[in-house]
Amino acid sequence: MQKQIILFLITCISICACREPAQENPTNNVPGNKIVFLMGHDKGDSSYFEYAEEYYRTSDSTAGFEVVKHCRTIEDVINFINESDTTYSSIDIVAHGNSATGLNLYLSEGGHKATPKRMVQEVILRDLPRLNAGVVDSTSSIRIWSCGIGSNPLITYSLPMIFKTEDGEQAKVECSEHFVVYKPNSEGKIERYAAAYYPYQYRRGQKPATSIIAQDMKKRFPDVDIDWSAAMTDEENFIDYHLPISFTRSYEKKDDRPDLGEEPQRLAYVQAQPEITEQLDEIDMDYDDFSWSVTKRKELQADGTYAYSVKAIGMTTLLCFLDLAD
Predict the structure, then answer these.
(1) What is the rounded average pLDDT for all residues in the chain?
(2) Domains of the chain (ranges plus CATH)?
(3) pTM, 2 dp
(4) Which value, to the nearest 10 degrees, does the dihedral of the CA atoms of residues 6, 39, 62, 53 take?
(5) Do residues 256 and 306 make contact, with C-beta atoms less than 8 angstroms apart?
């Protein structure tokens, strides 16, 4: 079978029975309601959610699925299901994400991002509502289609617990271990593909030469038959995601803000912020993995006074080479 190598550029900050979802799940043919939550919208030239919606509306394997596009948090999904007052045989969730940072959405409005550690914390604290008794049962299938999340044990432990019903009923929860791709086939019909992926990370704005990246990838993945240099020239399938780490601290007076004139001072400021340290700990990354922009802000308020702050933004770049069966 011929394989196609795709280069994705991602600017980012991707114990239980959570398994890799089947491309065509037998529960699709079981009587009962079926629903998919498309939890995001396309930016720039991306067609990810556009293609995902077309796939669910036109594919034979997803016939009968209700498409819901307005939910943006895990709590939104739970509340929508509870308010439907029905029993679901299949629940699909489509969202951006990766094994390191988890799902690119929030657990609740105004709450924490759905990182692996925050999902475990949610299992312990139980802040989210429970699914009502009867909305799913042991024959129901909940499938989360998000790139690589099924390879993180914290995620695969947490999601089945989060989607338990109030009476302890457990649906079959399946998480995608591969990169999830929606794209037209040779006949123009949208299909869903699971691709193996190979990451390469560097600070944003400090991209190494192509030859250096290719050499590093060959050393890291010696058994993978990919021409890394050639893969980086394939701009036909190029997608750009922006997921920075950011934090803003407010100050009462203009002169309360620290001196940020030189790079060492800016980095020292970043490292002194516990909120930034917490974000890095959640995704198991370090300050040196990011390029940092630290700027002073001055904003005019409605009462005519000014608000003073310092905003820090960290950016890292992850190249994901996808090995996609055609």
Answers:
(1) 86
(2) 14-182 (3.40.50)
(3) 0.76
(4) -70
(5) no
